[in-house]
């Protein structure tokens, strides 16, 4: 993981709370690795944002598999995208409005 953010509020920084670091450009995450998605997105389609931060454990998906699945619905996946989910099982996903985040 690379560097410190250029600026951030220190109001909540302590031993238990630290600024998140974003992986550098050359960081590679392998297939089928555990990752976590988090956010305040809506828990139902068109619903209000969650009042609590929610999170879900999912797994990284092979890029070739991801490209194939998205090509079937007319979408493209580029090299700078990370695919994750619970393929062919369902039941775990990001909330509405949380996709696309780091």
From TrEMBL:
Give UniProt keywords alphabetically: Hydrolase, Protease, Secreted, Serine protease
Q: Does the keyword Secreted apply?
A: yes
One Gene Ontology term of the biological-process aspect is: proteolysis
Q: Give the UniProt subcellular location, in the record's own words.
A: Secreted
Which part of the chain is the Peptidase S1 domain? Answer: 1-102
GO cellular component term of the entry, any: extracellular space
Broad class of the protein's primary localization: secreted
* SUPFAM superfamilies given in the database record: Trypsin-like serine proteases
Q: Which GO terms describe its molecular function?
A: serine-type endopeptidase activity
**What is this protein's name?**
Trypsin
The protein's organism comes out as Samia ricini
């Amino acid at each position: 993981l690379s560097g410190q953010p250029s600026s951030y509020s220190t109001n909540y920084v302590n031993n238990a709370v630290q600024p998140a670091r974003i992986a550098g450009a050359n960081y590679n995450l392998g297939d089928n690795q555990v990752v976590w998605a988090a956010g305040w997105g809506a828990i139902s389609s068109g619903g209000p944002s969650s009042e609590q931060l929610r999170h879900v454990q999912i797994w990284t998906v092979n890029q070739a598999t991801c490209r194939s699945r998205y090509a079937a619905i007319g979408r493209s996946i580029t090299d700078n995208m990370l695919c994750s989910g619970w393929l062919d099982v369902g039941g775990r996903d990001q909330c509405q409005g949380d996709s696309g985040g780091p």
